[in-house]
Design goal:
Structural class: alpha/beta
Number of strands: 5
Order of helices and strands: EHEHEHEHEHHH
Helix content: 40-55%
Largest sheet: 5 strands, parallel
Shape: globular
Length: about 170
């Protein structure tokens, strides 16, 4: 992408990209300039701080942060920047992402992190939320807003086009 990134997609380890790729795919589909980086809250705290502290001056408007386990990445980013942070819990332990979900969603008052679902669906929805944030309001990107409206209409039309066979109709109400 030639344009300066508007959305940062960060994750605690390269392994997390298997989940966070869903966010990247959605951002690509909408043509939103973005960057994807590994930034570990525990192994590279100085990098995390510089990434968060430079986010505004680098033009980032939203940060999507995926993390598993203790999942400190989204909250620590939010503590160091005013750029909105969307947290994506990743199933990285025997607790299947519930530990990450609870860690991200239980932020203290004053340091908000928008928390999405565990896994790839949460990553895709985080990207869709970032698109909506970029498109919203009077100063939002009108072309992006039109693409989002069309995308949602496409999802609606997919559901409306589904045909239910006669044997299945009895159970559909």
């Amino acid at each position: 992408m030639g344009a300066e990134p508007l959305v940062g997609v960060v994750m605690g380890s390269r392994n997390d990209y298997a989940v966070m790729q869903s966010a990247v795919d959605v951002l690509r589909e909408f043509g939103v300039a973005h960057e994807a980086r590994v930034v570990s809250a525990h192994r590279t705290p100085d990098l995390l701080f510089s990434y968060a502290e430079s986010a505004v001056e680098r033009g980032l408007r939203v940060i999507i942060a995926g993390a598993g386990g203790a999942a400190h990445l989204p909250g620590m980013l939010a503590a160091k920047t005013v750029v909105p942070v969307l947290g994506v819990p990743i199933a990285a332990t025997a607790l299947q992402g519930m530990d990450a979900l609870l860690s991200i969603v239980q932020m203290p008052k004053g340091i908000p992190v928008g928390t999405l679902a565990i896994g790839a669906a949460g990553a895709a929805n985080a990207a869709l939320m970032a698109v909506a944030m970029l498109a919203a309001g009077r100063d939002g990107d009108a072309e992006l807003r039109e693409r989002l409206v069309a995308w949602r209409a496409g999802r609606r039309d997919e559901v409306l086009a589904q045909v239910v066979g006669e044997s299945e109709e009895a159970g559909v109400r």
